[in-house]
Design brief:
One of its GO terms (molecular function) is lyase activity. The chain is of the alpha/beta class. Helices cover 45% and strands 14% of the residues.
Length: 281
């Protein structure tokens, strides 16, 4: 019998997902631990995690899992590859498919063509991994079918020669944030910080949050909870929002031009705290 998805994570809308766990489809043994983890969203990976000669078997493995009780997103191969069409043809019939992550998205029409091959309404998460993709991010964010943007840091660095220093990647991250806002999408998803756990991963999440990104990819189930914590409102922010909203409800008078923006921020923090179950954390 297929394992149950983490109930807390399963109830969270994907637009609010903080941790996005990539689970290699090279083995079905990777699926159950991923689904039981604290990851807000789980992505079965039939792209980078699977060598070319094993992709057909990995695709069948994913379709079988999504047809026997499991639910997950799937990272499919890029539209320029020989695998894209077969990936979508197989997944379009899988009842447990929550959405697809399109690798190597560089043009808006690639998202639209992907969405057209899936069941109507299936969300497409555009993984932007190149200089061309970053420069086209605004058009990609506004394309029919685009649900959210994600940053493929590793391939972007290989494409451009950029280091992993936050300053070197700031333009690309900012471009995805602004593009997401223009396209009226949820905040974009940052790339994984490979090998980082604990305090190192929390520090990476600070960079993600400071840029305006609201999610982060990860490769290990034990990284998910740290990312959730790092990309959630802090205890001090929640307390501040609680106090301001209580005062507002009691008839607090607008004091200056900053009041309404602060009130809007408090309301947003309150909504996120409710969604993430943080009020009593």
């Amino acid at each position: 019998m297929a394992p149950l998805r983490n109930s807390r994570a399963a109830a969270l809308p994907a637009k609010l997902s903080r941790s996005w766990l990539l689970a290699s489809a090279a083995s079905e043994q990777n699926f159950a631990p991923a689904l039981a983890s604290e990851a807000d969203s789980v992505v079965f990976d039939i792209e980078d995690a699977v060598p070319a000669e094993s992709k057909p078997e990995a695709r069948e493995r994913v379709v079988e899992a999504l047809s026997t009780g499991m639910t997950a997103w799937v990272r499919v191969n890029g539209i320029e590859t020989d695998y894209w069409a077969d990936d979508l043809a197989a997944l379009s019939k899988a009842p447990g498919l929550r959405g697809v992550m399109l690798a190597m998205t560089e043009k808006p029409e690639q998202v639209t063509h992907t969405a057209m091959r899936l069941q109507a309404g299936t969300p497409v998460l555009a993984l932007v991994e190149s200089a061309l993709g970053i420069e086209n991010a605004t058009a990609i964010a506004s394309a029919p079918g685009t649900f959210r943007l994600a940053f493929g840091v590793g391939d972007f660095r290989r494409d451009t020669g950029a280091s992993d220093d936050p300053m070197a990647l700031a333009y690309a991250r900012a471009k995805l944030v602004v593009a997401s806002r223009v396209g009226q999408l949820p905040g974009p998803i940052d790339g994984p910080t490979v090998g980082a756990l604990g305090d190192d991963l929390l520090e990476a999440c600070k960079v993600t949050a400071s840029m305006g990104m609201t999610g982060k990819l990860c490769l290990r189930p034990d990284a998910a909870d740290t990312i959730n914590h790092g990309l959630s409102p802090s205890e001090s922010e929640i307390q501040w929002a609680h106090e301001l909203l209580d005062a507002h409800a009691s008839g607090a008078v607008v004091g200056d031009g900053s009041y309404l923006p602060r009130l809007a921020r408090a309301q947003k923090i309150s909504s996120l705290a409710d969604s993430y179950g943080l009020w009593n954390a």
